[in-house]
Amino acid sequence: MSFEELNLNPSILKAIQEAGYTTPTPIQQQAIPELIAGHDIMASAQTGTGKTAAFMLPALHALATPAQIRSRGPRVLVLTPTRELALQVSEAAKKYGKYLPRINVVSILGGMPYPLQNKLLSQPVDILVATPGRLIDHIQRGRIDFQRLQMMVLDEADRMLDMGFIEDVETIAAATPATRQTLLFSATLDNAIDRVAAKLLKTPKRIQVSSPKSKLDNIEQRLHYADDMSHKNRLLNHVLRDETLKQAIVFTATKRDADSLADNLYAQGYAAAALHGDMNQRERNRTLTRLRNGGLRVLVATDVAARGIDVADITHVINFDLPKFAEDYVHRIGRTGRAGAAGIAVSFASVKDNMNLTKIERYTGQRIASHVIPGLEPRIKPRSSGNGPRGTTPNVTQRRKRSPFAGHDSRPGFGATGESGRNRNGQRGRAIGADNRGNSFRNGDSNGNRVGYQAARSK
Ligand code: AMP
């Protein structure tokens, strides 16, 4: 299905195209036609599924038709549990609505000065995005006229419930016209959410899409501990030499790192380029076109720039730096394994990243198996963390014979103990070789070509 088939206003289609989206996500495919038809919906959809556009595109579509009632009050109200989410939703509204004439988006969030909010609310508002507590204050002071409200969206309703906002949400709903269309989005649709829906929605259509967790099933996730930047570079070099790699996205933490890493890789002969938020739209489009038509083998990107990339030949995603947020991890690695293909996601981490790794694993519900590449073992033994003995028993990406030194090292390190651990499917397996006598492994080979090196050592 294409966006054109959803019968959205042409100005909205133009903005979607500019955002780089080619196909509606499952939640968008299911929700948008129901919403344009005027139904209430309750949908289970997590961050990363494209849920924001699923409600914002039809909301904007409705706003393209002039209001029937003369008022300055909002025509669309989105309630979110957190300020961060509210700001994201506002950004999305502006992005998708940029070619519609005069769409005024206002955010009303706790912690912001009242005088500024009063001013914003005194002007005509089309879309109001708010956290419940602060909005109630303004409603009670008579600052919001809901006469012409057409649509109310409860985003992340499960979190609003958990945070004790549901009474506030009900109070707000009571201040809006009964004729409104109501949308409820929640990570899960359980009994508690059903009770909220029963009070606020009218014969809603239920929509269920698979969570990001199940979307990751065709992606093999690997972890490599890295001691320092030079170690990361050598690991990256090794991964990029994998013959199964068609195209890869390498994620860095900063725009500057994306630029310098892309330059380094280019200098080494890789068809590599950077993509990040400091580039203008024309440059970004040009780079994306090169990626799509196969002219680029390695894209080095920051999180901001990578959103929306959907290229079937991306076989590998490499987290040169781990993302700060677990949602971004899911988003990043979802750039591979498109259209049911298998993908490989490799993350480089230092021992300092263990907390972050645990957060990511908790979010995805999947453990990221640690691997070592013979000759590129980390010097430092990663500490155990989270739900298992992280790092003590890595998988060896290229297996080789057990080293005569294994288990005899006075500084038993990564895999030297010969313990067994779990791989990503939860199966137990023995760690082979991979002692931590870094010296002998690391000497000798300075050109980064480890493939022949392994054979040479085991002779
Ligand atoms: P959300 O689930 O709303 O947080 O969206 C997750 C990310 O998916 C956002 O960065 C959107 O920009 C992006 N996105 C939304 N819809 C699409 C689409 N149809 N194609 C590609 N990316 C999309």
Which short descriptors sum up this protein?
seven-stranded parallel beta sheet; single chain; 37% helix; binds adenosine monophosphate; Rossmann fold; 2 domains; disordered C terminus; 459 residues; alpha/beta; 18 helices; eight-stranded parallel beta sheet
Written account of the structure:
With 459 residues, the protein is of the alpha/beta class. It folds into 2 domains: 3-210, 3-Layer(aba) Sandwich (Rossmann fold), CATH 3.40.50; 213-391, P-loop containing nucleotide triphosphate hydrolases (Rossmann fold, 3-Layer(aba) Sandwich). It is 37% helix and 16% strand. It contains 18 helices and 17 strands. The strands form 3 sheets. The protein has an 8-stranded parallel sheet, sandwiched between helices. A 7-stranded parallel sheet has the order 3-4-2-5-6-1-7, sandwiched between helices. The termini are far apart. The protein binds adenosine monophosphate. Adenosine monophosphate binds at residues 21, 23-25, 28, 47-53, 307-308, 310.
What is the element layout, followed by pairings?
Elements lengths: L9 H10 L6 H11 L4 E4 L6 H13 L12 E4 L3 H14 L8 E4 L5 H9 L4 E4 L1 H9 L10 E4 L2 H6 L3 H9 L6 E6 L4 H10 L4 E4 L3 H4 L3 E7 L3 H12 L6 E5 L3 H13 L4 E4 L5 H12 L5 E4 L1 H4 L7 E6 L6 H8 L9 E7 L4 H11 L4 E4 L22 E2 L23 E3 L5 E3 L7 H5 L8 H8 L1
Parallel strand pairs: 1-6, 1-7, 2-4, 2-5, 3-4, 5-6, 8-13, 8-14, 9-11, 9-12, 10-11, 12-13, 14-15
Antiparallel strand pairs: 16-17
Bound molecules: adenosine monophosphate.
The site of adenosine monophosphate (AMP) has 15 residues, from helix 3.
